[in-house]
Amino acid sequence: MTDPAPNSPTRFRTGGLSPRKPTRFDYAPDGSARAELARQLGLLALKRLHLAGEIRPVGRDELVLTARLTAAADQSCVVTLKPVAAAIDEEIHRRYVAGLTEPQGEEVEMPEDDTLEPMPEVIDLAEIAAEALALALPLYPRAPGAELGEMVHSAEGVEPLRDDDMKPFAGLSALAARLGTKGKPDNETDD
User: Fold this and answer.
1) Residue in 122, 128, 15, 24 with CA at minimum distance from that of residue 61
2) What angle is formed at CA 55 by the lines to CA 52 and CA 60, rounded to 5 degrees?
3) Cβ within 8 Å of residue 84, ≥6 positions away
4) Contacts 24+ apart (CB under 8 A), 16-25
5) Which of 61, 90, 102, 143 could potentially form a cystine with 77 if both were Cys, beta carbons 3.0 to 4.6 Å apart?
6) What is the per-residue pLDDT across 122-152, written as a single tens digit (0 to 9) for each?
């Protein structure tokens, strides 16, 4: 994959798009743009980022963007902080509809179709690629073999709680045995 030509557009005015035929695009930012995006997303490196697809008119008041995002990034392992490679290959689908308004208020119900968005004045490929990449990256990357160890803290002279002690029903059978109930209800007596 090569970087697009210097005059290749990355922003499209929706009013200037063809109402009859698809507008194809191929976006691959240069090294400095990838480095800036890596910094914004907290990545160690963003080695490759490519977004290719089309914006297709549907009727008079709707545009559909379909694309494929591919990327190669390095993230920090959440346990060891060692680099962890992430390979991204995602399909992107967005529907822009004129006259659609975003819900307002503190509590709003999520629409069933999460690809539906109000028609923007400008479709920015760099913004779409950055958002899709952020959503596709692993939230908690782990290096192979990296495991969380157990940390035990307690005051001097106090036996520390361990993970097994925190299981809500782990000690009930031992408690029942010590009390001598062995599974009998309180109102039941021996004959």
Assistant:
1) 15
2) 175
3) 74, 75, 76, 77, 138, 141, 142, 143
4) 17/55, 17/57, 17/63, 18/57, 19/57, 19/60, 20/57, 21/57, 22/54, 22/55, 22/56, 22/57, 23/54, 23/55, 23/56, 24/53, 24/54, 25/51, 25/52, 25/53, 25/54, 25/55, 25/67, 25/125
5) 143
6) 999 999 999 999 999 999 888 887 777 666 6
Total length of the chain:
191
Asked if residues 96 and 120 have their Cβ atoms less than 8 Å apart, the reply is: yes
Going from the C-alpha of 72 to that of each of 75, 119, 145, the distances in angstroms are 10, 30, 21
Q: What is the pTM of this model?
A: 0.69
C-alpha triplet 10, 16, 21: angle, nearest 5° = 90
**146 φ/ψ angles, rounded to the nearest 5 degrees:** -75, 125
Supply the DSSP string of 139-158, one letter for each residue. SS---TT--PPP-----TTS
160 residue type, one letter = P
Question: Of the candidates 113, 96, 116, 100, which has an alpha carbon nearest to the alpha carbon of residue 12?
Answer: 96
Place of tokens 């009930």: 172
The identity of residue 24, as a single letter, is R
Identify which of 35, 36, 70 has the alpha carbon closest to the alpha carbon of residue 53. Answer: 70
User: Could you give the CA distance from residue 123 to residue 129 in angstroms, rounded to a whole number?
Assistant: 11
